[in-house]
């Protein structure tokens, strides 16, 4: 007899009935474990590619374009997140609804979900095109742009925005890979995009000229490759889905908007946390300061990318668990993922903070080593703010996004106020912008995020906070160890940086494995690596 499913929601309509076949969920779990190593390898590959491209491309752009012109590139990229507000209401919920439709074998509903999202995005993109064309003409007015880059900046923003619209359309095709837990395919598409963009920039720089226009063309070209690859895998994974306007369903659109609307609110708050700093620095301190700030921010972006990749490994199983009514498994996975995320990220965060001066010196040049305190400010709080990323998937799969959206928006507005006020009142320069973000974001994710996730799941409020503590202590230990080594051993090359990191990692790994992880957690991790986590006793 099947055990009753734990449902923490007070409204019974919020809980989906599990499928009647008792072996169905077991099959999903076994397929998940079989796929997990592939997803993990592709995640590691994507992270390494992102790190390699980021480390190599940033100095290339700075040395060829100048630090002020370079600062416009991440600024343009950050603005695409604001444009996403127009499309997120539709695209934000497709992964959830399509996953549920496909795993409940409702082909008609799945086609309606896909086509409703696809054709809605087409309409929104057509609306956005003239608006964005008008916006690019005002770029030199809205931001501090070097006088010699006025025309080039318009082309840059136009290319980046166009690439974003293509990527938005890709999201409707990429949802199929998510629904079937083929995250490896999504990762390989992202790798393709990064490598195409890098290759195109290099070719255009050397065959045409190093310019912002070349960056714009390369970015647009890589987005086309991204769309083509997503479409190809969509056809392979879900041949039962078709592009057909007759499947557009206004009722399904209402379902998507009911979730997507609150995701938009949450996204606005996230933007005020994560993407307002470059705009504030550009407006308050000019393009030169913006370029310096953006160069250090690259490490924050890389670590966020790494954390997003790791937390995304379990996201499909979260959705499948909820779709089948297995909330207890969702709780177990959430607890372990928060702890493992914190412990796993402790090494890169601790090393980057402890060796910040040496890292900037080797990476960009000695003139940038003065920004080491800024790097510490930007990275040290990530030990908390990235460890909780797996908990955000709980809000989405349980369709509890209203309260997090409101809280994130309010805290984001507070961050904007402080980002402007601290530098002006205390004369801290752009360090004040980083301080504001660190304080507000950490306050939200250290208290509200774990508390709300535990409330949704019906468990003790302190559950996830206790799991986060392991990562905090581990990060501080790695930071102190790496800083101490830099004081007694001169680190002035990539080789020495890598050797230092490897030495600390070799000491760290066995300590965490035997002294911090429980026997059950070690068994679970070994089982996932061996593809036999759920073997019969």
First-residue to last-residue Cα separation: 18 Å
Q: How large is the radius of gyration?
A: 23 Å
Secondary structural class: mainly alpha
Strand content: under 5%
Tell me the number of strands: 0
The structural domain count equals 2
Mean pLDDT score, rounded? 85
Sketch the topology as an H/E string, one letter per element.
HHHHHHHHHHHHHHHHHHHHH
Number of helices: 21
Tell me, briefly, the overall form: globular
Low-pLDDT regions: 1-25, 531-537
Major sheet: size, sense and barrel closure? Answer: none
Helix content: over 70%
Characterise the protein shown here.
The structure is a single chain. This protein has helices at residues 22-65, 67-91, 94-103, 107-136, 139-142, 150-179, 183-207, 212-237, 250-274, 277-312, 315-323, 327-354, 356-363, 372-379, 382-385, 389-397, 402-426, 431-457, 463-488, 494-516, 519-530. With 537 residues, the protein is mainly α. The protein has 2 domains: 19-275, no CATH class; 286-399 and 464-537, no CATH class. The longest helix is centred in the N-terminal third of the chain and has 44 residues, at 22-65. It starts with 21 loop residues before the first helix and ends in a 7-residue tail after the last helix.
């Amino acid at each position: 007899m099947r055990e009753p499913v734990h449902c923490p929601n007070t409204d019974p309509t919020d809980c989906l009935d599990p499928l009647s076949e008792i072996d169905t969920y077991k099959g999903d779990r076994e397929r998940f474990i079989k796929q997990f190593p592939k997803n993990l390898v592709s995640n590691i590959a994507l992270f390494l590619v992102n790190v390699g491209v980021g480390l190599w491309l940033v100095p290339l752009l700075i040395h060829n374009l100048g630090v002020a012109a370079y600062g416009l590139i991440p600024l343009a990229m950050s603005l695409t997140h604001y444009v996403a507000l127009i499309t997120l209401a539709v695209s934000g919920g497709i992964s959830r609804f399509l996953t549920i439709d496909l795993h409940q074998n409702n082909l008609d509903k799945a086609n309606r979900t896909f086509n409703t999202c696809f054709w809605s995005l087409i309409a929104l993109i057509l609306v956005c095109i003239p608006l964005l064309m008008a916006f690019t003409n005002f770029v030199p007015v809205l931001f501090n742009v070097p006088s010699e880059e006025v025309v080039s900046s318009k082309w840059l923003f136009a290319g980046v925005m166009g690439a974003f619209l293509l990527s938005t359309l890709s999201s409707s095709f990429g949802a199929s890979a998510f629904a079937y837990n083929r995250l490896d395919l999504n990762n390989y598409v992202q790798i393709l995009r990064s490598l195409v963009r890098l290759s195109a920039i290099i070719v255009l720089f050397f065959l045409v000229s190093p310019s912002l226009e070349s960056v714009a063309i390369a970015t647009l070209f890589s987005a086309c490759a991204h769309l083509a690859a997503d479409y190809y895998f969509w056809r392979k994974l879900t041949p039962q889905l078709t592009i057909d306007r007759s499947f557009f369903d206004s009722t399904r659109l209402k379902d998507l908007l009911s979730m997507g609307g609150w995701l938009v609110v949450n996204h606005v708050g996230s933007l005020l946390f994560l993407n307002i700093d470059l705009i504030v620095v550009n407006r308050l301190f000019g393009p030169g300061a913006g370029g310096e700030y953006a160069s250090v921010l690259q490490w924050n972006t890389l670590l966020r990318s790494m954390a997003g990749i790791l937390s995304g490994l379990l996201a499909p199983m979260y959705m499948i668990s909820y779709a089948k009514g297995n909330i207890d498994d969702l709780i177990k996975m959430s607890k372990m993922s928060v702890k493992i995320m914190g412990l796993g990220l402790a090494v890169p965060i601790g090393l980057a903070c402890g060796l910040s001066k040496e890292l900037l010196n080797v990476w960009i040049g000695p003139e940038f080593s003065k920004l080491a305190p800024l790097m510490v400010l930007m990275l040290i709080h990530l030990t908390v703010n990235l460890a909780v990323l797996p908990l955000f998937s709980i809000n989405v799969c349980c369709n509890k996004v209203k309260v997090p959206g409101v809280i994130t928006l309010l805290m984001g507005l507070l961050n904007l106020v402080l980002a402007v006020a601290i530098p002006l009142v205390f004369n801290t320069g752009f360090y004040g912008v980083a301080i504001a973000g660190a304080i507000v974001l950490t306050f939200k994710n250290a208290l509200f995020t774990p508390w709300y996730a535990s409330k949704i799941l019906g468990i003790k409020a302190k559950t996830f906070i206790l799991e986060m503590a392991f990562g905090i202590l581990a990060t501080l230990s790695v930071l102190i160890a790496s800083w101490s080594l830099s004081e007694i051993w001169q680190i002035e090359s990539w080789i020495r940086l890598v050797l230092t990191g490897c030495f600390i990692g070799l000491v760290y790994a066995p300590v965490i494995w035997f002294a911090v992880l429980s026997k059950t957690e070690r068994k679970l991790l070994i089982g996932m690596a061996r593809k036999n986590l759920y073997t019969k006793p």
